[in-house]
Design a protein that fits this description.
homotetramer; alpha/beta; Aspartate Aminotransferase, domain 1; Aspartate Aminotransferase, domain 2; seven-stranded mixed β-sheet; four-stranded antiparallel β-sheet; 14 helices; about 20% strand
Chain lengths: ~350, ~350, ~350, ~350
């Protein structure tokens, strides 16, 4: 079966494997206090143009989200997220398990705005309700859309004014920063968020994400929280060497760009087949509306996510490309569609 | 200022004070293991016609909800509630603070149905999402509406089929059971819920609610959870004697009925003034749509809850009556309205 | 059976009942925002000579401990307590249930010292271990002993130096402050702790304790935590009016003194019978070492706590007096002992 | 500086690197549902002679402990551990952060016995105290000692009788099973524990441990808990392929044996130098008592753990060998000691 299920279903990028392999036959300090970690942090700081950022290597996305959020909030404080936010839907209540409510805002495109955030602030007015304190956004969003620099800056400035923290989930940050319509740079992320994470798993690492605290008043003692949640790998350098390799020669953005390019080609194919999209295609995820009568057929040949009914007569299927998607996989899909679609 | 803010803003009903006062000059066993508690439980079981119910005396509503729910659920399990549910909005994230997500369903009338619950079950299909396990309803609902016996039975039977627990929050159970349109009895609650609580605070106790486990397989060790959450009063009998008094001579329902009757009179007054209601008036809470230009005036004379904009040009104010509301308070409001409303 | 089991096995002191009864037939604001609460807080501040103290009315001891401690600590921080501390042993893991470790220090007399605390600080040196942040003491201790002013001051000053918070559990504060050997005053508690609570339940209230934050930087938003944990009673004034009555005419200390006096008389009786004490008798709890052959007999006539083996051949039984203990109960015990002891 | 600090300070064993490298250029299902995971589980089941074991791949030890324990226990239940237990001391309160108390038993050798466990059961007799439900042991223990088969069986049978779960932390299981004095086999672990984990990090994996539920009634829905705690790696196969390689040709035990052999040689050297051990040397950790005047010198040349004062005049330093320790490192230490020790 052909597979456009996800961008973490690939193994590892050759450059990253090389970086990992190069560590053999050494004694290395445990728990992220070694030279590989130090060097990798320096590479990241250079990319961010942010010498004072506080950087930590994490094993995965969910544990990053729950460790960061529970570290920062007081027990009665809550986060605000889009209803489609990963922390709201797809982390089995990880944030609530640390004691915090996830307040959700309905959005059409997966993106928050100062107006949407403000509505939540106005509603939560006294001690009978939780106190919103952290705004969670993701870029790309779970719907494949991206923020513009102006949108990000406006949210950040609003948060500053309202004493909220802004946290950006960058599981697919490579695809966001490499998107055709993107105008956000790494240094912008250092300027316009309190915390963000640079996703590795979805651009070809074995595992690992990097959390960056721009606001270092809230990162104090973060390693205590990491240890408590099981987030410090004894051999953290396995994440560090991969992230370091990604920071060299624009590899990180290159891999994001390839993912997006493959999606762009898929997009044209779907459009030519007369199909429409549930959400604006801006990165490596395409949410395609298929006539219901085609769905079973498609799913018997392609492994993709099924998001269910989307309007009358249509079903939304997600096609996800990756750093490893090959041109011929695209062409095969094009041919396949010609065989089944007749619009 | 006149006060229709809430039904817990009264002090204590004379019969309940008498019950409390009668306990003086005694040594009484601590932590709910005394004879007053035993006797009170017997009275309640009689009302319920349920000799095997497992009954516990609790200090208040929020602590009842959080203790019951956290006792029953496994860490990855969630509850389903109406978006207007008390546990979702007005308990400062008490349920989440015990680690559990509150899944919310949008409803117009504050009531859940098997269909609404089933939608949540279908969506939550794998281990990347929480596992819904307990359905939380309240009667009366937070919007003043009530369940019919058939609605309750259908939800219960659906829950049974789907291996969900049904928990009914009875903070205003007296008003529900005494409502004109009600056909649910105490024994029905024993039959058609797994757990429910009989609210005391809103019908004139100093404090105290009674939680009833009909499904005693899930109440095992409940006193451990009570103690851990700080929910066992050393002198639990202060709750027990009041609840016992409420069970005598139908006092409980009487107090609910009086609350409802006063609301019924208010309802006629509002209708005569040409006003409409945001939610169907069925008990002691009236959600009245006021033209925006009247709101400030009303609020400067009456202490009531302001629920904010309700459609274009209208603001919803909640008038809440109680067991202690006096006929003349109603008449004063009627006169007042005549002076200010001109429709 | 005669009963020296506990000091909360009495009902309510007449003055406190009077205070509660006086509230009838009123509308009173909910959730602790009413005039009774305000007035009661003023009485307490006067006693403490501390106009800026931040004061809250709580339903019971366990919920006070868990709400205060979880409000103050960050997730990776721990408390230090004597191994006999109530939070360690007798609250069903209430503190751990909010996520925090209770570090325990072995003590002979239930009292902490700067040296004992420092040992814990030295041991907990990095992020692989919890970070001790709050010192929990109780006065009287769970072993009936009391702190001197110098001891308290030294602990407080040590805590200040080490950036630890000092929290004093005053479930039996009345007995501590009324002890013959005591030299601590209410104003001293305001000076030498960050937070403490004034126990009500064990000196004759129906229920209720008062938590006092001297350090108001850590009490910010405390009502959010109270609501979340179910600790704000809708009718908080039931606690407030009782505490207010206790603050009048030294009633609080009077009741403590009576409890202690009755214990003092018991102490003489036990000593005359040739019995010894497991812990120094300083307040209303006596831990008496009984020859094993007497224990069954004593327990068949007296309801007291059995603490088990205490050295070879002896068993420790706790006799607890209260504000309501009568002279003739003491004399009856004296006579009884003469009948059974032959040393 | 020479380094006997820890067994996770090595990088990766060549066979394991080979296994990891062999996965390139593939699409692999996410979240542990792939063929590599299936195959690896089969290898492990074969070793255990336990076809029905429920097996999961985890990123590290702390997250394994907290996920397993919080999955199994009810909120008011506690675990029993040796006071030296890793979950008690070195996981920053990870277990408490999930809400559960760690009850600790003082032991001289890091090992629990039915008698020690029973004392805790007897003490915890009612709902004012936590309910002990899971016994946590580790093999090797944190003090380098090992359990005999008879000791393990007796604990297990006692747990069965008392309705407790037995969980064995196998971070250094390879060293335990390969110890000269060991008589426990893999199939014994399947028979005499409810759950255990097979440690990978300390025998040369990049990362990863394998949790094995022998008692599958308590593993139901475990993947929900894994996802919630951030314990399911998207590319879980990186752990699976390494564990599979360790199961081939007795590699797992070989690596444990090498670690132990190197320690055995160190032991002889220390003994020849007239030094004694704080705990019986049975595996790859040696706790050596050094005269205080030597400690500074040793620590300036060797990176080892300093456990502090051990009796009068002595300080305990831990020397830890590993699968990668070289014969010449041992010889160098022997020479070094000759130069500094003069007893």
């Amino acid at each position: 079966m052909y597979n456009f299920t996800n961008d973490y279903n690939e193994t590892v990028h050759p450059e990253l494997l090389k970086a990992v392999t190069s560590t053999t036959n050494q004694k290395i300090k445990g728990y992220g206090l070694d030279d590989y970690c130090t060097k990798s942090k320096e590479s990241i700081k250079q990319q961010l143009q942010s010498p004072n950022a506080d950087i930590h290597f994490m094993p995965g996305g969910t544990i990053t989200n729950l460790t960061v959020i529970s570290h920062i909030l007081k027990p009665y404080q809550a986060i605000i997220a889009a209803n489609s936010g990963h922390v709201n839907v797809h982390e089995t209540g990880a944030i609530e398990a640390t004691g915090h409510k996830v307040l959700t805002v309905k959005t059409e495109d997966g993106k928050l705005t100062p107006e949407l955030i403000e509505e939540m602030l106005i509603f939560h007015c006294d001690e009978h309700m939780v106190q919103p304190k952290l705004v969670y956004i993701s870029n790309t969003t779970e719907l494949g859309t991206i923020y513009t620099k102006q949108e990000l800056r406006e949210i950040y400035q609003f948060c500053q004014k309202k004493h909220l923290y802004l946290y950006l989930d960058g599981a697919r940050l490579a695809m966001a920063l490499a998107a055709t319509e993107n105008d956000i740079s790494f240094p912008d992320l250092a300027k316009y968020t309190d915390i963000f994470y640079i996703g590795g798993t979805k651009v070809g690492t074995f595992l690992g994400e990097v959390v960056v605290f721009n606001n270092t008043t809230i990162s104090k003692d973060f390693r205590f929280s990491m240890k408590q949640k099981g987030a410090i790998l004894a051999k953290s350098w396995i994440v560090a060497v991969q992230m370091n390799a990604l920071m060299q020669n624009n590899l990180y953005l290159e891999l994001g760009r390839h993912s997006n390019n493959m999606a762009e080609k898929l997009k044209t194919i779907f459009e030519n087949a007369g199909l429409t999209f549930a959400f604006k295609p801006q990165s490596n995820q395409l949410f395609v509306n298929f006539p219901n009568n085609l769905v079973k057929k498609i799913l018997s040949n392609y492994s993709v996510d099924n998001l269910g009914a989307m309007g009358i007569g249509y079903t939304c299927l997600r096609f996800c490309t990756s750093w490893a998607t090959q041109e011929d996989e695209i062409q095969t899909l094009a041919k396949y569609l010609k065989g089944v679609i007749d619009i």
